[in-house]
Amino acid sequence: MGNDIMDLGHMLQPTIMATHTFLNAPALDVLLVPGGIGNRVLADNKDTSVEDFVRLRYGQLDYLLSVCTGSMSLAKAGVLDGRRATTNKGAWAEVIPNGNNVTWVPTARWVVDGNIWTSSGVSAGMDMAYAFLSHLYGKGNEKLAKTMNGIEYAPHTDPHWDPFSVVHKVPGADKNADLSDCVKPVGY
Amino acid sequence: MGNDIMDLGHMLQPTIMATHTFLNAPALDVLLVPGGIGNRVLADNKDTSVEDFVRLRYGQLDYLLSVCTGSMSLAKAGVLDGRRATTNKGAWAEVIPNGNNVTWVPTARWVVDGNIWTSSGVSAGMDMAYAFLSHLYGKGNEKLAKTMNGIEYAPHTDPHWDPFSVVHKVPGADKNADLSDCVKPVGY
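ok -> structure tokens follow
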């Protein structure tokens, strides 16, 4: 970074203080594992705590979810073996070697296999979250509709809509699918 | 909350530690004021620090932006007087009395008036952010396209698309506009 004194506070902060450690985390019904740059830092430091936690806890969960490259942690934990799953399409080549017994789905906004839900990158987590909440509470659930319309988000509801698999040239991506999707408020 | 011992850690945390206070914040080029429940807590406690900061700093900014009910803070600061602006459509009735000299736009995903950009609720901030970055760096900017496709978000690019103004029954909302919008990856 050179010899200049640089204030990187705006890039590296604010800090977010976790509520628990992996060791003292309480019993969980639903575990959601995010992805992102943090995962690479852990991998660089040979820190396996995320996948260890997933492996340890999976048996007691009702549901396990991942967003983006979080599915890499799930793959490393072994819980995706024999299952279908997906990941961030820009990081496809980086993620899939971590799961040789995983059926990686190239074109998918998110994938559901049993009680494991995995989504594509970043924003795809929002659409998977809506699908997951619909699964839990019912698509017509009024509170869910109110929440979605309160955050003014018109979700993508088709798990097959995944133009980013084409944008990122994922091998096996469905190049015939429409790149565009039309969305509207929940309940309308 | 009754007599039961309740662990609300999952709802009230994790804590997010700010990098500066209003008093020692550095010079700013762009100030973005979010909205949300925190604003109401401040109002309940007659804490005017957000609008005071906006009023103090506006003259030295290149751009002032707000998301959701953040425009209420901008209105209270007086910087929206004589300008067009919008806000979260679910909180419309709560926000607009704070700016009697503001031209509140009922159907708008976001509004631009001079160097002040105000968006509708929550998710609308994402679309306004893309529009703002397009404004700064150009719509065809490669880095911007890569960023949007990296986060796998297909933005709403029409500031007039605002079905939530209809959902939330905002007076003067454009009821004839299409509630749906078709989106695709940036650059495609």
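Chain A has eight helices and eight strands.
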